[in-house]
Amino acid sequence: MSLTTGAPSVDLGQAFPELTAYARTTVRLHPRRGEPGMRDSHIGGPLLWPAGEAWPECADQESHGDPYPMVPIAQLTAADVPEAGFPAGTDLLQILWCPEWHDQPHPEGRGQACRVFWRRAADVTDVLTDQPDPEEHWDHEWDMIPRACVLQPERVAEYSWKEELPEDLRGRIAAWLTERGLADDGSAIPGYKVGGSMNWSVSDMPRSLTCAACEAPLALLLQLDTYEWALGAWGPAGEPHRFWPLEERHLERGDVEFDLAREPAGMTVGRAGHGGLFVCSADPTHPPCCFTQ
Ligand SMILES: [Zn+2]
Ligand SMILES: [Zn+2]
């Protein structure tokens, strides 16, 4: 089954043509609980990990003393999500993190210590079958361990988060929306997604989002979200939230199926918010950063 995002309640690009310079495509991953294979794209779940390569550990003594095996967050293939920006010669992306909070390479980047691996799947001939069980090591941080999910990528257009816009344009859009009693559901969209723009409504956007190694701008690689869509009516007509997939609108609030669709990975990111894993836009093998909202 493929999942489809609803139409935005307002097309801001029509009212503000200069906004189209800030339009981009993001890939909603639509994770849903499942049993992904080692070679598939997925959130959580087993990685196509070389048997001869040590499993990454987090050795931050201050946070948890002994080194602990890191937890698989996502695996993406170039066939499913080419937009992830695979370096030449690679077609497999693996992301792991430590469920504890840590200092990170970015000065404003306290969050999950994370590792990003770019590989060529064909190079992994001997696969590590006995992978660390997150539950065994991390039962006290279960909130930050995603349950295994399969993906159904969907391309969706969005505009940048408002703090990325020129101040004048941002002010005019806000006034225009207020005047009409409308809310913007076309910018920095929620849920698990690859690429695009992150919503920084909890803390302001860091003043500089640059790579600790080379100072090139950081780019959102993967957004992780507690919820795929917001509850309640939306806009003056009281429509359901546009990010509730059209194919799942028969689900009843309060039912297990509804919760599994809305909170597929079972993670509480930050204070029931969302987070973004950012990589260097010049060289994605530079140290990544996680920011939580
Ligand atoms: Zn750690
Ligand atoms: Zn860099």
From TrEMBL:
Pfam families: DUF1963. Gene3D superfamilies: YwqG-like. This is DUF1963 domain-containing protein. It comes from Actinoallomurus acaciae.
